[in-house]
Amino acid sequence: MSRGEFNLIDAYFSKLGSTRRDVVLGVGDDCAIVQPLANSELMVATDTMVAGVHFDENTPARALGHKIAAVNLSDLAAMGAEPAWLSLAITLPEMDTDWLHEFAAGLHEICSYYGCALIGGDTTRGPLSLTVTAQGQAPAGVGIRRSGAKAGDWVYVSGALGDAGLALAASQNKVTLAAHHQQRVQERLHFPTPQVALGIGLRGIASAAIDVSDGLLADLGHILKASKVGARLELNEMPLSLALIETLEYEQALHYALSSGDDYELCFTVPDERRGMLETALAHTAVKPVCIGRLTSQTEQIQLLLDGEPWQAPAQSGFDHFKAD
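Above: the chain sequence. Below: its structure as tokens.
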């Protein structure tokens, strides 16, 4: 490790590791040392964001600092984990102090809000790339998996879908947004909110869960495959933002809600006998999940209904890095 690399870590990232008492040794040594809770299980998630693939040169550095943490915390939320520690591997084309200051500020803000600490990582030189590994904790045996759903369970989403996709389309000049919608949808794209409190609240209630990162149809499909079930979705119940409704024709808005990613809402399933538990658990929170359908016994089949009639799914059902063009 070069002296310049040591200085970079000390200047921008060392202070992010001093926020939790369970960090015995954080940034600056060969390994971090943490002290997990007794009778708990660790849940670990890793995500990478690459310039030119996940973001362009116009994306604010502060947004990148926020989002690279948020996407990992969203994975933890989907499994009911409480965030604890992050590791960051960052590859930089050059030492840009202004960019680093803003990036570290975005990372600090989200780490502080969710009470997690940066405990280590790596810095290298090369094309801009960001990788975070997040670790969370939950009492042993309560983690929510994709494989627990059963036919008859109800399907919920935690909030409106499609806004991040709308923001991306607007930035690519594919749609025209009204000025009063621009800031909100840009924030949905660049500063997503991981549903951590909801994920923790779903312990013992949800039979399966996943975060919506690649599009609802694609991500729900992972639950259906793991649980060997199908789904029937009532599209009239799909939560859509005012921005989406006022910008697009209704059926086009549904395409965005079903297929565009980066919303980082939770999609989860709840057995019929636990629906009352769900309402009780969330009664005093700001989160109001919406029931959009029910699981069926038709393995991996998704039936879409609009006004009670079958509706054709979008041709592209979600983001895939290796899908042929």
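The CA atoms of residues 13 and 104 lie 7 Å apart.
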